[in-house]
Amino acid sequence: MSKKFKRRASSMSFSLSRWFRRISTARPSSLAITIIVVVYAIFLFGGGLYTIITQPLPAVYYGQRFIFLYPELGSQFVSDTVIAVMLYAMGFVGLLAVYQSTKYAYKPRQAYMWLVVGVALLLLAYIFLEDAILIKLGR
Q1: Is the pTM higher than 0.85?
Q2: If you average pLDDT over every residue of the chain, what do you get?
Q3: How many domains would you assign to the chain?
Q4: Going by C-beta distance under 8 Å and a sequence separation of 6 or more, which residues neighbour residue 84?
């Protein structure tokens, strides 16, 4: 901070000075930072930046049906982004469930349930993402 700004802040009344100190030294929790970073990474992996920059069509009505996945790998619809982000998020939730299962070693039934749910979500996300790529390849 500049000296001029510090001088102004110190000459404020006590309550404003305390408020200024609290705001200037505030640090977000590690959980909030982690959530923001994970959401940002999932957004980037899903193609969100491409969608913002190129502003593609949401979907196309062709041959008396809606096409939500662009039939080529070189481009995408907005719905491609939404589908990919949801599937990546589902896979991440699966990873969290698998991690959660390790915390219940003293409750084998609950640990097994968390593990099954996590692996199921991971497999579903992987299968649907692979299927989306195969649809884009035209196979």
Answers
A1: no
A2: 88
A3: 1
A4: 45, 46, 47, 129, 132
